[in-house]
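Try it yourself: sequence plus protoporphyrin IX containing FE, in.
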Amino acid sequence: MKIKTKVSLASVLFGLFFAGPVISGRASTAQSTYTSQIEFLFLLVVLVSILIASIVFGLLIYIIIRFREGNTNTVRKPIQNGMRLEIGWIIFATIIVVSLFAASLPATSSYFTERDDYDEEIRVVAYQYNFTFTKENGNTTTGFVEIEVNRVYMLNITSIDVIHSFYVHELSIKLDMVPGRYNIVYLQVLVPGTYEVHCAEYCGFGHYIMEARIIVK
Amino acid sequence: MSSHSSIIKDGQFKLFPLFVGIPFAIIVFIVLKILLGSFGFIPELVFLSILSFTIYLSTYDKIDYIRLIGTTNHAEIGILYILLAIVSVFIGGTLAIIMRTELAFPGATLVDSELYSVIFTAHGTIMIFMVIFPLGAGFGNYLVPRLIGAPDMYWPRWNNAALWLLIPSGVLIFTAQSSVGWTLYTPLSAELWGVGVDMWIIGVLLAGVSSLVSAINFIMTVATMRKPGLTWGKLDLFSWSIVATSIIQLCATPLITTGLALLLSDRILDTAFFSAVGFGVGSFLWQHVFWSYSHPAVYIMILPAMGLTSLMVSKFSRNEIFGYELMVISMMAIVFLGFLVWGHHQYTLYGAATDAFTTTLFSLLTSLIAVPSGVKTFNWLFTMWGGNVKLEIPIVFPFGFIIGFVIGGITGVWLNIVPVDIIVHDTAFVVGHFHMIILGGALTALIGAFYNYFPEITGKMYNRPLAWVHCIMWIIGFLITFNSMMIAGLHGMPRRYFDYSTFGNVDVLAFWNFLATVGAYLMFLSGVIFVINMIYSLSKGPEAGDDPFNLSLDEVPTV
Ligand code: HEM
Ligand SMILES: [Cu+2]
Ligand SMILES: [Cu+2]
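Structure, out:
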């Protein structure tokens, strides 16, 4: 009874640390096709984390309280033959990490597979400290791009000076922009709005000011 | 204690700290003044504190400084390493406080973006090469020969050289004013104008030499100088952890040494190893070279702390280590796997239609490395099971270590889920993750070890209530700071930004950043309490005696 309350207290404390911000920070309508998959993975890994953290922190608190010096009503008997226990948590830990890995595979492959069914290609070029977008019709804009909702775009991105990174938090994409190399990410936005692009790879003193907008109509 | 006048009376050797300290204080002052020109009082404050510390040292009459420079005694060298780390942690900590103060509110409040870049580069490098590495080497030197029953290290003179190499290295790193971060991603680092990056590279190369020398020394010491009857299977876990660390240093340091030398040649001789831009090969190569050293290097930081935690947990719970063999095996598994996972720093590098296979392979390997870490955690917990746990500071800090290590490890597993990493890579989340492990974990355990050996080193006991205040403030401080940073990262706060006022969700970011700053101040304050406690106890503390923690005396009979 007493142990149970301690354990659940520990888990609640820890859960609040992690679950709250994740839910408040990222849960919203699926803004791009990636968002829902990632939302699911986040939820999964948060739940698993809460489980593990409550086991470990619960055990820690329980053991300290039970085996602290001066606690006279306890039996102090070290565990003999811990082999079974050890094998137990090797298997437990392996199963958890490998199944998390497996769960992430579908979403990973949806980021990494090449597609032919995109509607339009947009070339994005980064330089210190701005982004330019060039559409198929040749229109080039700097610092913003206008796209249509639900259309599939292939963003073909590169840089002309140093490494930058194309980071749109709300659309769940980030891809490094490496000079001399074309990197590809597909984007289909489901909700109209204006989304902020920020540079995520340190690229010089103006790194913090490097931003653009994706205007989805 | 001798009074102020005895500096002159007792001859010139006692002036030695002043000879070193005053120039050092002036150099630091000038550098800080250049760095922080508009921001008045920090340089003066640092100047005064270094000055008063040297005056304090020169009045402390139990130390023969000249002999100490050339010492080959492993315990003394260990203590000098630890002192170096304590001085450096305050330099690095001041830089951290400047950064956190800047970020506490949106907008440019304290420094500008150039200075901010210089500061985060210096902070990162000082904390890694001048704090965490020296603490590992320091406790290794202090303890390993004693634990294995050797009179000294295998090569005592090289040992001394490895220590003093760190001084020019630290001065170079600190005065370089490099601004490209500790990751030095090319082509930026290969092309950035100015001598700063070159100085930085040479400084880190020197630190690499030091680390290589001490690694070989440790391996030779443990391999050949164990007392008769002490087989590998009976070796204590701390010596094992130092062997493991040294293996990593031995195998990984040449990678970064080569890499940095070639990068230097790119900068100075206009070669194009890492600055070639065709298809991005140069920058790809650099990232692979860098991370194939720097991922193993994170285990150089954590393994000694793990070893010390094993010692302290078992000492203060008066119990045998649970699962000794598995502890050693998992340490070696970490060493081995640690070399195979560097690609997890590059999940956002490839993009669609290129390299899904590499990415998933690294992700799978990285998942596996979480297993030995988890195993060790459970074994520490079960070491206490059935023991008689004496709640003294040197075991409460390891509790902090376990907390930091578990949260850091769990968030490491989050980061290893590729789609999740794609969002949080290069945000404050990553910064929170590794600080949770390196500061919340490694540094916390190392501080605990310092409290553990302080009575033995100085013969004096520290002030217990102050130590508790330090411990509690520290643990609460790092939990607040790094959890807040991770949350800010989940809200889209990129790392290495000195201002986030243009973000749409600036109020959310400001809230979490402010909270992180509060925690940082808590930690800094607790560090000041620590120093006050040590300096006070050194002169006024009670005698420690043979058993300062009363571990054997008041043993409670088992019921
Ligand atoms: C449970 C085991 C761990 C896992 C699965 C793990 C996973 C990761 C991953 C995937 C990243 C890359 C994040 C990104 O850049 O997007 C990362 C970054 C990092 N980790 Fe860990 N980690 C673990 C333990 C550790 C430990 C023990 C340390 C240090 C003692 C550590 C220190 C770091 C550092 C320093 C970085 C970032 C370096 C930088 O970008 O500047 N990690 N970790
Ligand atoms: Cu940037
Ligand atoms: Cu890593």
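One thing you can check immediately is this: Residues A 164, 199, 201-203, 207, 210 surround copper (II) ion (ligand 2) (CB under 6 Å).
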